[in-house]
Specification:
This protein is mostly beta strands and 78 residues long. It has a single domain, classed as F0F1 ATP synthase delta/epsilon subunit, N-terminal (ATP Synthase, domain 1, Sandwich). The chain contains no helices and 6 strands. It has a 5-stranded mixed beta barrel with strand order 1-2-4-5-6. A hairpin with a 2-residue loop joins strand 5 and strand 6. It starts with a strand and ends with a strand.
Length: 78
Amino acid sequence: MYLEIITPDKTLFSAEVKSIKLPGLDGSFGILNRHAPLIASLKKGTVKVVDAANNTENFKINGGVVEMLDNKVILLAE
């Protein structure tokens, strides 16, 4: 699946990934390839991304919104 992490200033990340772990308002949750469509609000925390080469990257966010549609994830982060 393709992930874009976008802030008001710039695009932080844009690449194919295997999995994403997100800090949801009601608890953390994960998104894998071919996940069902969703929109969710995020709280302050860490977004953990595992890319296609099995490298892990962590991004600190202060909240935001994530959308999964057609195997593309867009994360609008503060």
